[in-house]
């Protein structure tokens, strides 16, 4: 034999950048391991290479087929699950329909009971409100018939009012009251004492009257509650008796049949039993034996024997059908007539409701107009009576901050809406720290101190004017 040439697989040199190695499958790894072992032990011939390639392709096809089978199994399981879920849903729907049918039957029974209970008419009435209900309402709200005693300032003001009016006849109500308020501050404790003593004596008498009235109202309230409780208990007893009687009647007459409705015709077998019953009873047959005998005789009868009964039953059925058509037609006409009456009644109700609504709208508009006129008159009076020399109350720290913040925001964003501006200002105020807020609080406090000083000077000037005029 000649020298055999062994083909050794050349090892490829690695480059700078190594490519990612493909992870082989289990079958491929086994094949590669087999190849390596064969190459290391025996020389590789061209025929063996072809066989190995065929084996590899066959194994690939097998793997693909296995994967396909796996997918088909999964799809089959999914379809089975879907079908099962569909069957469960259909079963649930059927059960729900059955339950609904049962519930509807129960509701019909309960509705019949309620219709019967509508006829409940008690033999007694609830206590009606008397003529003096306005007085009772006042007492309930806490308003007493006796007037509340006036405080010492008002008692003093009543005495001093005429004196100031003599000196200032042209002065209005607000001006005179301001003058009196300023003067009251300068009044000594000795001058105030008689008015305070009078107020205390009147207050004690007023409190005694109120305590008496409260006790009387509490007693009357308890009496009314007990009376209502008694009436309610009597009504409940009457209702319970009526309910028991109604339930007994419903048990006796579960289905109230229409007397005008035509009766259902008897079948051929029942016509035959009616004919035979008299003869069997004459033979002293028991009522339990009669149906058994008639049933056996009916079974053994021929068609000719049965024919007259069947023809009679057929005629009765045709007659029943005609009567039922006439009955249904009559019922439909009655229902249509009732519907017409209900529609006319509804139209009348709607008309009355619209008229009521128009009246209400008119009254609402009148009330609105009167309120607006009153507000306008009030504003005009306040504008006339307002003193221009009186110092104005300073704004709070938040309002001072708002003024400056609004100016800066309007400069930064000239096209902003008022609502967005207010929102941004409030956000900035919330974001301020305690130290930053103290600055604005300090400004507001300084302004308030200045306002108090101005008010003291203003009150002094008013009291001086009042004293000059009295002198």
From TrEMBL:
Domain of life of the organism encoding this protein: Eukaryota
Coiled coil regions, renumbered to chain: 441-468
UniProt keyword terms in alphabetical order: Coiled coil, DNA-binding, Nucleus
Biased composition (Low complexity): 37-49
Alphabetized SMART domains for the sequence: HMG (SM00398)
UniProt xrefs under InterPro entries: HMG_box_dom (IPR009071), HMG_box_dom_sf (IPR036910), HMGB6/HMGB13 (IPR044601)
Record feature DNA-binding region, as residue ranges: 146-214, 262-328, 391-459
Residue ranges annotated for the HMG box domain, each copy included: 146-214, 262-328, 391-459
Bias (Basic and acidic residues): 50-60, 130-148, 244-261, 329-350, 380-390
Biased composition (Basic residues): 368-379
Keyword Coiled coil: yes
MF (Gene Ontology): DNA binding
Annotated Gene Ontology cellular component terms: nucleus
Region (Disordered): 1-60, 122-151, 242-265, 329-400
Protein name per the record: HMG box domain-containing protein
Organism of origin: Phaseolus vulgaris
Organism taxonomic ancestry: Eukaryota, Viridiplantae, Streptophyta, Embryophyta, Tracheophyta
